[in-house]
Structure formats: structure tokens, C-alpha cells
């Protein structure tokens, strides 16, 4: 019969056998054999031979189908676990090695990695490389690539179809890309390749390569189909990550364009800041440092509820509003009241356009520091309390009435005045620094206190220490941090006079001002300053009530201030040829760099600034 020797020996021995498989030429035979003398029967044996070639082939196909379904199921679960393009590409390689291929490469267009759409002659970049060994001579991760059209990858990109190369060394165009590296790859033992374009709709995002070296059998048509399905699933996740990257980049760009590019120059505070966007999405945190009249400085920290473009755009509107309201020189409680009305109107307008629009909510803390008085007046609308580091290093959280968040309306805001010694540090921040889903805000505040107690003396060192101690690895919310160390203008920089309610007193004030300017070495400004003060003091005596007070401050500019008890503000106008008055403020506006009015509980202040030579 031409039976193999092992099968002939089995049949001759008469030993029992159950479904032993033997290969006879090109057929698989299942052998069953039983002795006949087990229960006293005649000596001998009975053997049956069953051809199981087709059954084994069918079983093999079923096993292959099961493995294929397992891989596809794992791809659905394991690819796309994050909205990160690079990580998604890496997950595809980790899944396919070694179950499907010995090495997997993922090459994406540079524009895809940045969140854009591929087009033109944009180069590709090796984004992921997974394999059973690390010394494979394939292009490394990060390498920029331009595939020639005749290479397998180039053909996949050009045609949008997968390419199967069962014998890589004989593949057309294989050595056209890089002759030296192609020879190294084949010498290394890689013998088979499948390239599949990463397609999302009509967009080709890149190309995936499946490489085989350890398994001796080459890729076949069934495995080509499996590779296409794996890449198709990965392409959906990569495209989603690309779209998210684009949206996130747009939101970050918008938000950063709405935040301060640089801090304004001023002498009242030494300021440092940090702004860190959330990893999961852009929020609406913002901060500002705004110089005011009289060498005062406003500090603002705010937070819009929610994330994304809507929160960033709303933050920009609120920050612009704060700038405009600050120009009015309003006290903190009144400014927050105007912001509260603005947020309410934003909600009404958006609800009228879209009933499903999210309700805008925001918190804000607004503080004004006066370096002449060494005082800080502040109010907050639902915002976390400020922290204060005294010059001796002690840390406290001043009692500032919280107030309702912006947009609720109907409730007033309260102000608190603090006396700050020179060298005190005021720490303003958003809730992302002290709150998370695990810990209560009280825990966060206590941790912040401990970090501030160990911080260095400068605002920059304070920012660094706080973030090193408090910043989570992947913050879930934006973090804005503003640290301001106070300075105080000494008596040698401030001159004050009470003015009798008599027009004749103006001449004496001019004389005293001239002497003080001479002491400050500002003789060049004497003439202009005399004219400015003559006009402002004369108007105050004539229209401003019983009490008139003059203050002159030497800072980055020379500031002249006239206090009176009237609440009526003067207005600049053009006097007609026949008018006897009305030219004084016009003259002040020509001589001063800036001038304006601010109101106090006892009246108002008319101020003018001149640049110091």
C-alpha cells in the first residue's frame, strides 16, 4: 500500500489507537484500532482508516476565522482609547504584534499629526513602530519620509488600495525607495509585506505596513483582507483624534490670543504668573494686570464655567468688558455688578437663539492695590479666596465675602480692604489649582497653604513652588495663577497740600509745587504742571465744594491729582470764539499725556499724568 513506516508498524502491532492522524501522501488519515482478544475473542485486531483531509481543512478555516474575529474584537476595544493621534497609531501596532505581524509601522502625514487635513506634497512621518525586536533596520519613529510612487507604500498612497508583497525581495519598486536600507531589511529576514492606506472617507491620512520575518509563511489574500479591516478600524479612531487635535488647537489658539501677551509696566507690584490649559479641553480661565490712575493697579482673575470654544470665547468677552469697565475707574463691587449684568444678557441672547445653549456661568475676583496708601480693596463673585503671604512668611486666607457667581443677578457684592506691608505677596488663582474630583476644596486650600509656606521670596519662585507641589500630572481643569508682591511709594515720592476755598490760594499752591519739582529734579515739568494745577484747582474751588486737596506723585510719570467734594465731572469741549471760558480742560488735555476722573465716597478726583523726562 506504500504506507509510511510508522503507520505500518502501528497496524502490525495491533495496539489500541484512537483518532491518530497520519499523513499518507497528500491525505490526512485518522486511525482507530482495537484488539479482538480483549474478552476472550480470537487473536487479532480491527482497524478503521478515515480520510479527514477536508474536515481538517474546514477546522483550520474555522480556527482562522475565530482568530480573525478575536483580533477584530480586540481592535474595537484596544484601538482609540484616547484622543491622541500618536497613541492611537501605537495601539494599532501593539495589537497586531505578534498575533498578525512581526513588525508594524504607521506613517502619517505631518498635517494629520497637527490636526489638519493632508494635501499637496506634505511629507509623512514615522509615527509608530512596533515589533518583536528593537534592532530591526526599518526607519525609526520620528523620521520624515517621502515614498516614491513605485514602492509598495507609494502605490498604496497613490491608488488608495492595499498592496500585498508575499516575496518582498522580488517586489517591483522595493529597492527604488532606498537601495541600501531595502537590502538591510531583506538580509535581516523580513520576507513579506502588506501596505494599507489609512483612509477616512475620501481622505488618505497615511499608510500602515505589516512586516513578517519570524513566521516562514508569507502573507496571503485572507490576511490582506484582515489587514485592511484592522487599518479601517484604526483609521476611524485616528481621524477622530485628528479632529479633536484640530478643535483643541483652535481653542487653545483662541484662548491664548485672548490672554495677556505681556504684563504692563508699572511700579506698584512685582508680578509673576502661570497659565496652564487643561489636558482634556480648553477652559475659560483668565487673568489681568491693569494699571489705573494714581499709580494704582488692578488685579483680575476669572473662570468661565465649561470647556471648549464657547468657554474661551465667553472668557474673551468678559476680559474685554473688564478692560472697558476698568477705564471707568470703578470700585470692585460696582465693576462686578456690571459684569454680572453682562453675563445675564449673554445668557438671554444665547437662549433666544438656541434653547439648548449652555447657561454661561463665571467667577471673578477683582482687586485694586494702592501703593501710596499700601491698601488693597477687593471683591469676589463666587471665586476662591485669595491667599496672602506676609513679609515674615506667614500665610493666611483673608476673609473676603464670596458673593454669588456672575450671571445669577439680584444680589450685591461686598468689598474688603486690606492693609498690606511692603513685601507682602498676594496670590490669586482659579479653582483648578485647589479643586479636583477626589478632594474637597478645603483640602486643596490647606495644601496650597503648605506650599506657600515653603515658597521663595520672589513671585517667580512662588509660582514655581506652588505648581511643583500642587500640579497634577494631567490637570482636568485650567489653572491660572497670579502672584503680586507689593511695593510702597515712600514719602519722598508723594507731596500733598490742602487748599483753602479761596482763588487767591492758587498762586501759593503753584509756588509750592514748583519748589517740590525742583527737589525732585523735574524742573522741566514746572511750567506745564503749574498750568495744569492752576486750571484744576481753580475749577475745584469754583465748582467742587468746600474741601479741595492736591496730591502730586512721582512714579513712572508725574501724577497731579485734585480732590474735591463734588460728584460733578468736568467734560472736555471746544469753546466758541465768543465764549469767555471752557478752554481750561482743553489746555490740560494738550499738556498731559493722560487725564481723567475717578469717584470716591467723599467726592471725586481729577488727575493728569505727564511723562517724566
Task: Based on the model shown, name its key terms.
26% strand; six-stranded antiparallel sheet; 24 strands; Beta-Lactamase; five-stranded antiparallel sheet; 4 domains; Phosphatase 2c, domain 1; alpha+beta; 613 residues
Strand content: 25-35%
Helical region count?
A: 15
CATH architecture name of the largest domain:
4-Layer Sandwich
Structural class: alpha+beta
CATH class descriptor of the largest domain: Alpha Beta
Q: Provide the CATH superfamily of the largest domain.
A: PPM-type phosphatase domain
What does this structure look like?
The structure is a single chain. With 613 residues, the protein is α+β, with helices and mostly antiparallel strands. The chain has helices at 5-13, 53-78, 85-96, 110-113, 152-159, 174-177, 179-188, 221-258, 309-327, 332-353, 441-453, 459-470, 505-520, 526-543, 584-591; strands at 17-24, 27-35, 45-51, 103-109, 124-131, 144-145, 163-165, 192-200, 203-212, 269-276, 284-291, 297-304, 362-370, 375-381, 387-389, 395-396, 416-419, 425-429, 479-486, 494-499, 548-554, 557-564, 594-600, 603-611. The longest helix is centred in the middle third of the chain and has 38 residues, at 221-258. The chain starts with a helix and ends with a strand. The mean pLDDT is 86.
